[in-house]
Amino acid sequence: MGVGTNSFDDNLKQGTQDFTYSLYDKPVAYIYISPEGIVRLTFSKNDGKWYVYWQTPKNPCDFYGACGPFGVCKASPSPSPICKCLKGFVPKSSDEWSKGNWTQGCMRQTKLFCERQTIKSVSSRGKDDDGFWKMVKLKLPDSHEFITAFDAEETSNDCKLRCLNNCSCLAYAFVSNIGCLVWSKHLIDIQQFSSFGVDLYIRLSRSELGEGKPIKLIASLTAIGFVSILAAIVFSFYRRRANKKRHIKQNFESTGMIKSSRDGLREYIGKHDPSELKIYDFECILTATDNFSMSNKLGQGGFGPVYKGMLQDGKEIAVKRLSSSSGQGIKEFKNEMLLISNLQHKNLVRIMGCCVKEDEKLLIYEFMPNKSLDTFLFDTRKRAVLDWATRYNIIQGVARGLLYLHHDSYVKVIHRDLKVSNILLDEKMNPKISDFGLARIVEGTQSLENTQKVVGTRGYMSPEYAMGGIFSEKSDVYSFGVLVLEIISSQKNTSFSLYDQQLGFLAYAWNLWNEGRGFELVDEILSDSYSSSEVLKCVHIGLLCVQDNAVDRPTMVDIALMLSSDMDGPQPKLPVFTIQNSIYHPQPHLENTISSKNEASITMIEGR
């Protein structure tokens, strides 16, 4: 094989650039790329003539989005015009369409039924409900959302129902050996072939469907592979719009800002492949919450207000609405959305989906009818509902949830904001850990992490985290210890005040334990209706967890074992660091002060 050279030459007149590869100083081939994105490989037979060896794109349909949104392109066998609107759609601009400019695409003729109905009209679903029109032998549109991996038990009908029950879903395809794909924004870059392709079901109003009957979906994995290869070859040379998308995504991740927030978020979610996460229309959530009515407000946290809602199918939800004044932003929003969607445990709250529109960022959760633990624990009237059996069950449930996060989930997760207001209660008063906006994933072999910004809640942060930004699973253990002592006493650690002694809540609890008076920490409303051994065990565990040195604290494995057996731990050390200066807030008329207000503030400290 001979020695060759290569060079690039600019043709300013034509606005092109030539790549030349020469063998023995004689050009043998040229690659030509035009401003329109046409790539052509030519070669010479040493007869003075140049022959086209390969060219792409071969037809106008190979250009990305040639027919615009909701338009379908078919260039073989050379129809004229090459673009047509999907069934139920008409050209957005008839004048431009007639001139052969199809890039503006098409728009829907008849509004979807699910967009017109309200909660009151849910019962009218049936004969007027939306349906699907089948198109065959297609190159599927861009920007799909992957809903489920292939499952032998999953059917096309299951995929159809998933799409039908989500008003934002505009189309679906069930691909054999791949799974259920759905589209919830403009259908763009659709191409129809004559002999291969994939079936696509497009959501239409019932009046647009006519007498078409549903046909069982049959798709070819081989066809999908062929289309993917073809798309990769073509797009690598001229897909400028794809490059623009990548710039949007990079800006989205690096700056924490949302450009075209709804589309950008969907793209981000699609890259991270959450298993069941749905994206809801903002109008759907407005209807569900009665325009965020104050009568539906469940509470207020560091993230923002939380509202109760009811979806069109009658399912109750809780909607967390990011406040513009919140210390948390889009980074924490994405973190919670994607992290918790992949964690499954009975003591972790389940996220159902999310919604983004302009400055609105919403997280949709399963509804917890008993709200958060602080609404009972720190309320002088409601805390009587929490008998000892309920409190002990809550302590055990939170411990199981943390054990899952630290040891049993597929990744090790540090919550970093465990507190009473982030423990939700279901209809049976079972606890579920919530609010994963500040959570971090750490490698299984790592024991410590460091952050330049300390975020959390006053009174629950461990000394090493508050002072130096160092966090580990032992940081969550510290917060768990504070939580346990608060559950036993019904006293909030940051609101505790003992006027005649400059003691904080944790030091006061340790003194009672050290003097053999641990039962005095128990909420007086419980009277004598509690298990002495269980109370002493929990006080002991709580004090072990809040020790200043992280090495002295037990792991959640140790704690789970102590809770489920008679095993005793070592004598806890006095938590010196957490002694609070109560003299700054003296209250001479009260010996012990509690507060029912949820002080779920976010503290940000620059780490040293």
From TrEMBL:
Its EC number is 2.7.11.1. It comes from the Eukaryota. SMART domains: PAN_AP, S_TKc. It is found in: Cell membrane. The chain crosses the membrane at residues 217-238. Residues 114-205 form the Apple domain. Pfam families: PAN_2 (PF08276), PK_Tyr_Ser-Thr (PF07714), S_locus_glycop (PF00954). Keywords: ATP-binding, Cell membrane, Disulfide bond, EGF-like domain, Glycoprotein, Kinase, Lectin, Membrane, Nucleotide-binding, Receptor, Serine/threonine-protein kinase, Signal, Transferase, Transmembrane, Transmembrane helix. The lineage of its organism: Eukaryota, Viridiplantae, Streptophyta, Embryophyta, Tracheophyta. It is a single-pass type I membrane protein. One of its GO terms (biological process) is recognition of pollen. Its main location: membrane. It catalyses: L-threonyl-[protein] + ATP = O-phospho-L-threonyl-[protein] + ADP + H(+); L-seryl-[protein] + ATP = O-phospho-L-seryl-[protein] + ADP + H(+). Residues 292-574 form the Protein kinase domain. GO terms for molecular function: ATP binding; carbohydrate binding; protein serine/threonine kinase activity. This is non-specific serine/threonine protein kinase. Residues 57-95 form the EGF-like domain. GO terms for cellular component: plasma membrane.
